[in-house]
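Tutorial handout. Part one gives the primary structure; part two gives the three-dimensional structure as C-alpha cells.
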Amino acid sequence: MNVQQIVKENLKFEFKDVLDLESLLPNAPKEKSEITNTEVVNKYHLHSILVHRGTANAGHYYAFIKPTLEDHWYEFNDSKVSEVTRDYAFGQGIGGNLSSFEFLRQTMYKESTGQLIERLKENFANAYMLIYVRETEREAIMSDKLTIDEQVPMELQMHFRTEELFKDQIQ
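Part two.
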C-alpha cells in the first residue's frame, strides 16, 4: 500500500549576503531601472530571511530583517523584536545538522587525556524564503524616499484598484 506523506527536507543550505548574477548573464541586454533611471546591475543584497522551525506538520515561523542599508539585523519572532548579529541571523536558517562537542575523560585514570566527541543534532530551522534587493534600486528603496505609487509596480496597482471596485460592488 502506497501512502503519501508530507516530508520536510532539512538539508544544509548556506546563502550569501550578496548575490551577483552578472557573471551568469553576460549577454543580458542592459536596461534602465524604473526607480532610479540608471543602468540595471544584476547584483542583489540580502535584506530578509524568513525561517520555519519544525517539521512538515507543525512548527513556528519567524523572520530576520535588515531594514536599512546598514548591517543591523533584527529578529521578528511573534511580538518580540530584538537586534541580532549578522552571523546569528545567517546561521539560523541553514538546516542540516548542528555540531556540539563533548570532552569525555575516564575518571579512574588520572593520566587519561580523554576524548573529544562530536554530537550531531538535526537542525529543524530552515530559511524558506530569502528576500534580496537589487543593488541599483537598493538605496532608493531602503531610504523611504519613494512614495507607495513609486514602489509598487503599475500592474499591481491596477490589480488592487480592480479588486477594490469588485469588493465595493459585492457589498
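Part three, for discussion. The chain has a mean pLDDT of 83. The two ends are 49 Å apart (CA to CA).
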